[in-house]
Amino acid sequence: MKNNLALKILFVCNAIYLFAALLLGPLYAVYVQKIGGGVLLVSITTAVFYVSSTIFLILMSQRGDEVKEKKLLLAASYAIRGFGFLGMIFVNTALALILIQIVFGLGDSLGTPIFSALFAKHTNKKMEVMEYSDWTLVANLVMALGSIVGGFIVSGLGFNFLFVTIAFLCFVSAGWILFTPKDVL
After folding, report:
1. What is the pLDDT of residues 27-69, one digit of tens each?
2. Does residue 183 belong to any structural domain of this protein?
3. Are 64 and 114 contacting, i.e. CB atoms less than 8 angstroms apart?
4. N or C: fewer beta carbons within 10 Å in the chain?
5. Measured between alpha carbons, how far is 73 from 89 in angstroms, rounded to an integer?
6. Contact criterion met (CB below 8 Å) for 167 and 83
């Protein structure tokens, strides 16, 4: 990865997104309680996320390879997730939270396979294990940091501030990918 600009950009942008998402990650159940839900709503909304992501992934698997500008789908996935996090500010019912999880499922189904495809495309074939290991190391560290920082943000500034922060970081990732020259990604 030393001289691989594409991998560096993918690492940074996805690390920003993962950090942002994990700001909420371990606090999600607390947030659901705050809007009047409980353990069952946490379970239902989590299931809705995975089922919706799976349904959208089926569509993605059929059409994703036809897309010439894959980086646009990756940027869109970060933006969709950012809008989803902004939408969390306005959630006050179980139905609204379920609908937001469908938005997150769409974002996930666009972003995850595209990130993986772009990553694989730009991997040095003689150093694949090292580059995937480097990514996993970075991802684990930023997710751990996000988990801790999220608790401090919510404790001091509340969930709404957290959601705006997460959305902003998602939009930073989207913009960075969007404005990366075609020949790089």
Report:
1. 999 999 999 999 999 999 999 999 999 999 999 999 988 988 8
2. no
3. yes
4. N
5. 25
6. yes
* pLDDT 10s digits, 61-104: 999 889 888 999 999 999 999 999 999 999 999 999 999 999 99
Is 49 part of a structural domain of the chain? yes
Report field, pTM of the whole predicted structure over 0.85? yes
Instruction: Indicate which CATH number applies to the domain containing 11.
Output: 1.20.1250.20
Measure the CA–CA gap between 29 and 42, rounded to whole angstroms. 6
85: closest CA among 153, 14, 13, 25?
A: 25
Alpha-carbon separation of residue 149 from 27, 95, 141, 160 (angstroms) = 11, 29, 12, 15
Q: In which domain, by residue range, is 22 found?
A: 5-178
Q: How many residues does the chain have?
A: 185
Q: How far apart are CA 83 and CA 151, in angstroms?
A: 21
Q: Which two tokens stand for residue 138?
A: 């970075």
Query: How far is Cα 136 from Cα 178, in angstroms, rounded to an integer?
Result: 24
Residue 87 lies in a domain: yes
